[in-house]
Amino acid sequence: MLIVKWQPTAVEDLEAIIDYIANHNTVAAYDLEDHILQSAEDLAEHPYKGRNGRRAGTRELLVHPNYWLVYEVSDLIRITNVIHTSRLYP
């Protein structure tokens, strides 16, 4: 089982998403946060669950109809971004 490490950019992305949603619905925001965090932890056992990423060396996992988890697999799982599906990426 691999270790899952969140990069500062991914933490900032997640915090911004949760803060925005919490302004409208606190319960939904924390449910989404729990779901995203659990999905990230599941990658420790299934690192290739996501598809090949649009950026070389990355993978992308759709963790919610509106959010992608972008990560890299090496000797650990490095979560690099959490992005809205409508966001122009990369």
Automatic annotation (TrEMBL):
Signal peptide: none annotated. Belongs to the RelE toxin family. This is RelE/StbE family addiction module toxin. Keywords: Toxin-antitoxin system. PANTHER family: TOXIN PARE1-RELATED (PTHR33755). InterPro entries: RelE/ParE_toxin, RelE/ParE_toxin_dom_sf, TA_system_RelE-like_toxin. It holds the Pfam family ParE_toxin. It comes from Acinetobacter parvus NIPH 1103. The keyword Aminoacyl-tRNA synthetase does not apply.
